[in-house]
Amino acid sequence: MKNIFILLFCWCFFSAAPVVAVQVEELGNPSSPDLLGADLLEDEYEDFAFEDKEFEDIYDPLEPLNRVFFQFNDKLYFWVLKPVKTGYSYIVPAELRECFGNFFNNLAAPIRLINNLLQGRFNDAGIVLSRFFINTTIGVYGLADVALQEFNLEPRLADFGQTLGVYGLGEGVYICWPIFGPSNIRDTVGAVGDTFASPIIYVNMTNTESVLYYSANRINFLSLSPDLYEDLKKYSLDPYVATRQSFYDFRRNVIKKAKREETDF
Amino acid sequence: MKKTNVVLIYFVVSVFLAALPAFGTPSPTEQLKPTLDKLVTILGDQELQGDEKKRERRQKIMSTIAERFDFQEMSKRVLGSPWRDINEEQKKYFTELMTKLLENNYIGQLENYSGQKIEYVGERIKDDKAQVSTLIENNGAIYPVHYIMSQEGERWLVYDINIEGVSLVRNYRAEFKSIIRKDKYEGLVKILEEKNKSFE
């Protein structure tokens, strides 16, 4: 259990962490089940008045501290992650990096399975299970995403922060963690919960091995994602606010989508 | 005339009338598609590749975007309530600044993806607002992009772009709000001017 903090570290690879890179994971997947976003229009575009209500529900009393951590993450990205990522991408061919990405993703299947079940998305849970079995066997330990390529089974993402949101738990205070990036109280609790569903926690690894595993995962993940953070920084006037807003918009959308996909009986 | 016939004629006429607007104006998708097709053509045009052609390429992209994007509506939405407090001249200048920023943003995103394929997966219309959903494929990854449009007479014009719940307008609006709180409208204009200079 001493690995728990290192496992928390891992969460940055999957969940809210690499500034906005989390979006890539979702975006990178082939069409999510409901692309129309059934209530996008109602929620956000129907009646535009000059009301600014919609922003006041982001609660950020820690802003001064968060901004310091945001700066730290910015330096971490440009001074460490980006150079390492660039070198890594140069050495390792893209096909191989994709295989590694599939492998890491496949190992996180229990997290998606449990949360799909908790959210009442039984169809999606079934798909997660099928994907896991197909990819672990025919896909050779998850190195190839055969389930997607041959069986057209698209990934069904789910995490515990989302589950709590579906249950109606509020977001709480916004937190920009050093290293992990944007989050809030609810998603932080969710991330800790998810580590217990990760099989990695039950493998006896030394601390060094764990850090290596998660660093490899993160660098590999970044090497496969477009430079979203750099774009965001380039086109925004206040990258801190832009990141915070994107994070909330993205998470709220994820929860909204989960609610729509609950299986009806 | 028999009563049933009257009912039937009434029914046929009303169905026809109800369907009329659909014949009259092309749908939001039908209006958006030529614009996006043109953009893809410009981006894929071999004769317009390379840095020395950058200016010409951007010129073409910008004029294409201008046909279908409602920059004034975007500016108004982005600024929020302060829009009411500024005069006509300021509104015009702010729209100019916003147009430049949004064009650079959108073009920058487009230029990251060459030879993209756009698939139109859905359309929803609600009164004078519409949402056209597309999937853009690039290097094996698929990105859902929703265009939010409003009707101006016969034309449907884009006033927001939404990717996975993240709205372009809302994002800028949150940023502007926090800047205005600190530096007032004048400060925001200065920051916008500087940002736009950084693209040149």
Q: What does the model show?
A:
The complex is a heterodimer of chains A (265) and B (200). Chain A is mainly α. Helix content of chain A is 64%, strand content 3%. Chain A is built from 14 helices and 2 strands; from the N terminus they run ααααααααααββαααα. Chain A has helices at 4-14, 21-28, 40-44, 53-56, 63-91, 94-107, 109-118, 122-137, 146-149, 160-166, 185-197, 207-224, 228-235, 239-260, and strands at residues 174-177, 181-184. Chain A has a two-stranded antiparallel ribbon. In chain A, helix 1 (4-14) runs parallel beside helix 12 (207-224) and helix 5 (63-91) crosses helix 12 (207-224). The longest helix of chain A is centred in the first third of the chain and has 29 residues, at 63-91. The N and C termini of chain A lie far apart (39 Å). With 200 residues, chain B is α+β, with helices and mostly antiparallel strands. Chain B has one domain (3-199): Tgt2/MlaC (Nuclear Transport Factor 2, Chain: A, Roll). In chain B, 58% of the residues lie in helices and 22% in strands. In chain B, strands 1-2-3-4-5 form a 5-stranded antiparallel beta sheet. In chain B, strand 1 (117-126) and strand 2 (129-138) form a beta hairpin. The N and C termini of chain B lie far apart (74 Å). Chains A and B meet through helix 2, helix 3, helix 13 and helix 14 of A and helix 5, strand 1, strand 2, strand 3 and strand 4 of B.
What topology, given as strand order, has the largest sheet of chain B?
1-2-3-4-5
Computed Rg of chain A? 18 Å
Oligomeric state of the chains in view: heterodimer
Overall structural class of chain B, as computed from helix and strand content, comes to alpha+beta
Point out poorly predicted stretches of chain A. 5-39, 42-52
Number of helices of chain A: 14
CATH homologous superfamily designation of chain B: Tgt2/MlaC
First-residue to last-residue Cα separation of chain B: 74 Å
Number of domains of chain B: 1
Q: What is the chain-wise order of helices and strands of chain B?
A: HHHHHEEEEEH
CATH class of chain B: Alpha Beta
Please give the most extensive interface between any two protein chains, plus how many residues each contributes: A-B, 42 and 46 residues
Order of helices and strands of chain A: HHHHHHHHHHEEHHHH
